[in-house]
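Page 42, continued from yesterday. The earlier attempt failed because a stray header line got pasted into the input along with the sequence. Redoing it now with the clean sequence only.
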Amino acid sequence: MAIAATRAAEPLNLVLPTDNDALFRGAGEEFYQYIERDYHGEKSTPWEGGRYGFVRNPVETSAGIIYTRLHEGIDIRPLQRDANGEPLDAVRAIAPGVVVHASQMAGYSNYGRYVVVEHRFDGCKYYSLYGHLNSIAVRSGQRVQQRDQLGVMGHTGEGLNQARAHVHLELNLMLSRQFESWHATFFPNEPNHHGLYNGLNLVGIDIARLYLALQKRPTLTIPEFLAEEETLYRVLVPASKNFDLAKFYPWMVREKAAGEPASWEVSFNRAGVPLKIQPNAKPVSQPELSYMKPSGVNAGVLTSDRISGHGANARLTEKGKQFMRLLVFPD
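This time it went through. Structure tokens are written below.
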């Protein structure tokens, strides 16, 4: 489906999940919760670490300092605290939808207590995730309207303390309906308490940039938004009836296949967000890197170790192959 075809759909209308709207005033230090960083013995608390993208774990390279750890969402700091310092901010749905997951057990995930809401935009399903909640006010299966309260901000989850309380917000694409069997195959000793709504099966887009873009272009759609992202690498995956990504987001398929393709080529940005799907004539039995943007930096630094090497010599790592197999599992 052509991207232009989505223009006739209803406008994408998102609100922030709390009363903190400093994002729209350009006041990053008032909007984002800081992180605690110790870089070569120098301790700091940069608020930039609460932004989306590769904003954590700096390393020195020949091209300068590069941040190697991806943060798939944004960390929004509280506006209100009680006398004991606990956050009081209500966390609300950014758009209408259905609660598909409400994880009450704080120790089951790095997200702590978290809620996932399924939305339909342009006929496709997207998933907002609200992490580190102190309490949850909804249940799975419950329909919510925009601005309905989902819970209260907190600091549940690994590595958080009261001072750094925040809500972690993501807006995600889902990768596969076969996630649970994939997870059981590759992580047999790690319980999956979250079914399809495990963070490994949800890939977050740059929601802060989307909020700001919608301020300027209210008719913007998610396909149009992602069409502006730069492709860092492309991967061939085997043709499979289980290739859910193309079914979930048909707008990604830019070319109609003449017959059954030998494989599919998926384009990704640096954050690992799939951007485009194209049929390919080359048969592959397992995922294979077909393109890596030239760079003087080892690809592992840029891709969370999914790819290693440089340019034409870059290859998917075992970690990368394992992740890409999720797209077509069982292939």
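Notes: DSSP finds seven helices and 19 strands in the chain.
Reminder to self: strip header lines before submitting.
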